[in-house]
Design a protein that fits this description.
This protein is an alpha+beta fold. It has 2 domains: 2-34; 47-177, PCu(A)C copper chaperone (Immunoglobulin-like), CATH 2.60.40.1890. It has 2 helices and 10 strands, in the order αββββββββββα. It has helices at 2-29, 192-195, and strands spanning 47-51, 54-61, 77-85, 91-97, 103-108, 111-112, 117-120, 140-148, 159-166, 170-177. Strands 1, 2, 3, 5, 7 and 8 form a 6-stranded mixed β-sheet that branches. A 4-stranded antiparallel β-sheet has the order 6-4-9-10, with no helix packed on it. Strand 1 (47-51) and strand 2 form a beta hairpin. InterPro entries: LpqE-like, PCuAC_sf. Keywords: Signal.
Length: 197
């Protein structure tokens, strides 16, 4: 009986050793290979916060449109977000400030009416419905916000603090990322020597 247990243990040890060796061999063989995810970008969720009856959603900097993929120092950078008013009275976006720009310009509607929303991007993006009601078509105010003459380069992946000041709800700080590009990045060509074993 003891001999049988010894043989059984020896077999299990040999199988485990072979399994570890095979795993190491496969891991080494895949090094340098092109993967399915090499052209995919990680999703970037916009910043969000609440201030009293207001809910700020999807705050983000637009992705740079040029080939440099960076907002260079001195650039004017668009800021987007949606502000939903869940309360019974209107409020107003008084100002936006950030350490990377001394001049943030807001153009358009700055009032966030009760049970309605304000979209900061100049478009017609849909806003989430407030509790206990629905935002009907045409009830979403729109505006644009631009950081003028930023004082340092701004790269994708960076997060910048932005402060919103409201007439009634006071101030709220947001951590705002740069949006991902609409198109996936293209894979760089790999030479045969990169993938040869």
């Amino acid at each position: 009986m003891r001999q049988q247990n010894g043989r059984s243990f020896g077999r299990r040890l040999a199988v485990a050793t072979l399994g570890v060796a095979a795993g190491a061999l496969l891991a080494g063989c895949s090094a340098g290979q092109i993967t399915q995810t090499d052209t995919q970008l990680a999703a970037v969720n916009g910043g969000g916060a609440t201030a009293g009856q207001l809910s700020v959603n999807n705050a983000a900097f637009a992705y740079p449109e040029d080939d440099q993929r960076v907002w260079l120092e001195g650039s004017d950078v668009p800021l987007t977000m949606t502000i939903v008013n869940n309360g019974e009275s209107s409020d107003e976006l008084s100002s936006i400030s950030t350490p990377i720009s001394r001049d943030v310009v807001i153009d358009g509607d700055t009032t966030i009416r009760a049970h309605k929303a304000l979209t900061i991007d100049g478009g017609t993006a849909e806003a989430p419905n407030p509790p206990g009601g629905e935002i009907a078509a045409g009830e979403v105010g729109t505006a644009t916000a631009t950081l003028r003459n930023i004082n340092r380069d701004l790269f994708p992946g960076q997060v910048v603090t932005v402060t919103l000041t409201f007439a009634d709800a006071g101030t709220v700080d947001l951590r705002v990322p740069i949006e991902s590009p609409d198109e996936p990045r293209t894979a760089e060509p790999h030479s045969e020597s990169d993938s040869a074993h």
